[in-house]
Amino acid sequence: MKLLFLGFCLFIALFGENVSAQKHKPSPLGGYTDIEADSENIRKLALFSLDSITQQTMSKRSLGLIRVVSAKSQVVAGINYKIKLLVCEKDSTQGQNIVMDPKNCRSCDITIWEQSWLNNKNVTKVACSKPSEISSFSSVAVTKRDIHENVNLGAKISLNSNDKKVQDIVAYALLSIDRQEGSKKPHVLSKIINVSKQIVSGIIYNIELEICDNSTSEVDEKNCRICNIKVWEQAWENNKNTSEFNCYKPHKTNTDISNSEKLTTKKNNIDDRLQLKTDFENFIMTHNKIYTSLGEKSRRFRIFAANMKKVKLLQNHEQGSAIYGATQFADLTKNEFKKKYLGLDSSLASKKTLPMAVIPQNASIPNEFDWRDHNAVTPVKNQGACGSCWAFSAIANIEGQYALKSKELLSLSEQELIDCDNLDNGCGGGLMTQAFEAIENLGGLETESDYPYEGHADRKGCQLKKSDVKVSISKSVNVSTDEEDIAKFLVKHGPISVGVNANAMQFYMGGVSHPIHALCSPKSLDHGVAIVGYGVHKYPYLNATLPFWTIKNSWGDKWGMQGYYLLYRGDGSCGVNQMVSSAIIE
């Protein structure tokens, strides 16, 4: 041992200067640097990428890692890894031995973006050669040792619940449970307990969830169940289905819980309840809430407590920078909130088929844009306790269209639509596309001052005066579901009407909102709003960005970001790209 130590010291004395010089040789800032290809971390990253390679190449058999050829890293908001590797399709298994198919091998270049502080990594790029014999890539024989950690074919691999792919699978699983049970109302996701995968002919996802019944106005823990469900995906056939699922109600008998556990649980429950009581009293003072009786106050507290659990769930799974909390709607049930403050009724099917908008394909657009900077957006309005969001969305769109056409910004009348639009249901809900059709039929819109907002249908019916009409529209169009195209249309034509899922909006307080799809399904649109711009939230110290839409809401300027909602842009969050339309003024 002493001889080894002396030898090491002699090596440093003779070659230390050169070793030091090489160690501290500067690398180009922001560029890629060669790293050890056979390190444990690189092997794990290479194995992590195999699912993505399988799906990208549409291989019908799972892939095995033969070897990592080279690796590079780049410091960004986290680390980018560029890895070249050799993979082959797995032919069969013999006990613990895996036999590869030497005639179906590929050389692949992959890029993985890792953010260790978020426990997050994603394969961002995959480029593979066509299948070929292994001899064309390497003379090294395929051995069990080369396969590294893929020896146990079909082994379960734990997954991060914040991963977008996992969220999509969970959303599909939740929808499958609803369909198979014939639920009249979709279940509420309470918690993602565990998700793992197995590589077979495709991928089997093993999912454990806690879901709650949504048949009553309040979510009660007594109506919650634990569900285990398997989802089998074969990406090359664009196919996935549920192979099995079972649900049960969690319970513990008294014999399962020790006395000390009981005391600790009881103390924690008391502490939590006291904190909730304090938070509720602060909520009452902040929002000037008045309840008609102690019984009503007690009921509102129970609803508030249930909603704070939703807030915690949203915050724990938030992928952006949004903050959720006790907004002015925190004492409302989901049904009360939907009835009073939403109003997008997607069940109303318009008989008129709208043409698709022409998107300026070759137009270059800026990285950020906001129509508020160009005098095309009126101040934030307040729909009150009337389900008229659809009218506010349509009017915001037309106000912008008219401002661009005439260089004059007018505040137009939502009340006219509530009273006079026979295609929609006033405070009971409606659709922006039908509102546009109704405006064409009515001959146009009066201003807000001539036909002021009341927040309920006028008892006398429609009070439109044709002589007071200031703005008329020529037609209306549906806009693309591609968010890049939506941005192009926005920059050229002005604010756009869109439908969104408002699940996260009930408790939104600020920041860029990016809820997981399982908590904000793009298929459950219930609120009409208007996109007035887009931008990028920058984190200079992390060199990271969050692209977002700037959305004008209709709940007053005390809500959200002075009445605006910043929603993540690029992955169809909350269905923002599913119902996009605009009036046209010629």
TrEMBL record:
Native source organism of the sequence: Macrosiphum euphorbiae (potato aphid)
Protein name, as recorded: Cysteine proteinase
Keywords, alphabetical: Disulfide bond, Glycoprotein, Hydrolase, Protease, Signal, Thiol protease, Zymogen
PANTHER family the record matches: CYSTEINE PROTEASE FAMILY C1-RELATED (PTHR12411)
Statement: the UniProt record of this protein carries the keyword Glycosyltransferase: no
Signal peptide: 1-21
All residue ranges annotated as the Cystatin domain in the record: 27-129, 150-248
InterPro entries reported for this sequence: Cystatin_dom, Cystatin_sf, Papain-like_cys_pep_sf, Pept_asp_AS, Pept_cys_AS, Pept_his_AS, Peptidase_C1A, Peptidase_C1A_C
Pfam families per UniProt: Cystatin, Inhibitor_I29, Peptidase_C1
GO molecular function, a single term: cysteine-type endopeptidase inhibitor activity
Residue ranges of every copy of the Cathepsin propeptide inhibitor domain listed in the record: 280-337
Stored SMART domains: CY (SM00043), Inhibitor_I29 (SM00848), Pept_C1 (SM00645)
Protein family according to the UniProt entry: Belongs to the cystatin family.
GO annotation terms (biological process): proteolysis
